Amino acid sequence: MNSLLPTLPEIEAAARVVYREFQATPQYRWALLSQRLGADCWVKHENHTPVGAFKLRGGLTYFDQLQQRGALPAAVISATRGNHGQSIGWAARAHGVQCSIVVPLGNSVEKNAAMRALGVTLIEQGADFQESREHALGLAAHTGAHMVPSFHADLLSGVSSYWWEFFQAVPQLDVVYVPIGQGSGACAAIAAKLALGHKTKIVGVVSAHATTYADSLAAARVVEAPVSTELADGMACRVADQAALDIMRGQLDHIVQVSDAEVAQAMRDLYSDTHNVAEGAGAASFAAAMQQRHRLAGQVVGVSMSGGNVDAALLAKVLQGWPPSSLGRQGLQPELT
Question: pLDDT tens-digit profile of 58-89?
Fold first, then answer.
């Protein structure tokens, strides 16, 4: 087993840390979604955490480990498109640590506001996440602030707790679809599956407009890919993380690429059928399942509503039909199988 993957006792310990702040999130079998998909469809509602996304779990365990090692810094810095930043901001506030977060220019207005409400000093710098990350690294080197990465074993143990909950609650899952941003969600699903000894197939989901993980897994090396998604900001990664790739390789059944048009339709479907709001990345796993519904008949399918933090103006636009399905899946590459 990869040394970064948490063991079952480590995941259980991480869950206890998480539960100091909030209880296990629900998972429901939604009848209308199941009817739409043509298979039993279970949704894990990570949009129900106190920051509206799964990332909070990782921030809590990351800071807990710093505290246990007697290494809590005076200040931390990180980069994000929003949900990771809220996670770090929440955990830093709980531990009395100053927190600065770098976001790309033009980032989600409401995610920015949510981070500021947690006491975060927000720095808007860079055209995309990668440029923001590089700026944050530079600031950390200059100021001495502790740089919190987007992928780390101490984040992974906390994130694994949500898949541990899901697999225990619905042990009959045949296949789960997992959105991939920087990789912690997919690697957490792998960790929980292996720790519990389940046989569930894990399918990775990337944006068709941000394909670094699909391209890197196919090439067996990190392949930088341009980012052009207008909807799935939580998946807008330009450079895959090597450590995450090392875990995913051989553990993902395959990769599915979903277009912004498919993600938008999934956001509409999820709202219509469950009256839950999903951000782009939070709807991507259901979009992938719908794309592959021809192969799912008779199976028990799990999808992750990994976050619900979408700006109201963008949500209204999507619910009114943007982007048009005529945009389709232009320029997509074949699936990795």
Answer: 999 999 999 999 999 999 999 999 899 999 99
Q: Which two tokens stand for residue 66?
A: 């710093």
Ranges of each domain in the chain: 8-53+153-323, 56-147
Indicate the class that CATH gives domain 56-147: alpha beta
In CATH terms, the fold of domain 8-53+153-323 is: Rossmann fold (3.40.50)
Give the predicted TM-score (pTM) of the model.
0.94
Query: Considering just the CA atoms, what is the radius of gyration of the chain in Å?
Result: 18
